[in-house]
What we know:
With 240 residues, the chain is of the alpha+beta class. The chain has helices at residues 4-20, 26-33, 38-50, 103-112; strands at residues 54-56, 64-66, 94-95, 115-123, 139-143, 152-156, 172-176, 186-191, 196-204, 207-211, 220-222, 227-237. Strand 9 and strand 10 form a beta hairpin. It is elongated.
Amino acid sequence: MLTRKQYELLMYIDKSLKEDGVSPSFDEMKEALGLKSKSGIHRLITGLEERGFIRRLAHRARALEVLKLPENSALPKGAVSKADTPAPAFKPEVIEGDFHLSGAHIAAAAEEAESVQLPLYGRIAAGTPIEALRDPDNFIDVPAALLSGGDHYALEVDGDSMVEAGILDGDTVIIKQTDTAENGTIVVAFIDDGEVTLKRLRRKGNSIALEPANAAYETRIFGPDRVKVQGVLKALYRNY
């Protein structure tokens, strides 16, 4: 089953191919669907491709081929516009998020939504508590299926201390807010001198070790009352 936006995009692409002989540009698709960024179009196209509705033609710009249309389409093939209403079976897939996105909201979103908006913090930096990085106007769309119960936020990684765990400078990580973490979990840790860092947490007796994933950096050992867990790593995004 397609989401509403997937349905609208598929019909818009099909209409453009029939009328103009060429698939629409990403900007045209973004405008037609009323989306704010082209990243949403990328996700919709990927979803349609995975479901076998379209195919990207290699080595050609703006080259999309419609392989099939939904059998329960309520409209004639190619007859759709931005204002058209999709088949009744489709539900809106995007919810509006805020900083405290509750577990109940996420559970409901996972069934009805393709993506959820999470607050996007700035780059994790020494001397800055996580809360101080919050920007109420900066969000990122995240597939609801990646999230579990609880509050989440996104954070931009600064530095190369976790490269051997596949976390690179400039990556965006999805963090579940919590003050507890299992041994060996990658966490956002707040150290008593004001430093915030993303490291693997190890408990050794009465001490806490924050382990980097880069041989050029040393593991740091702290007393149990000097480290506060502010979240655990759930997912990672990277732009190429």
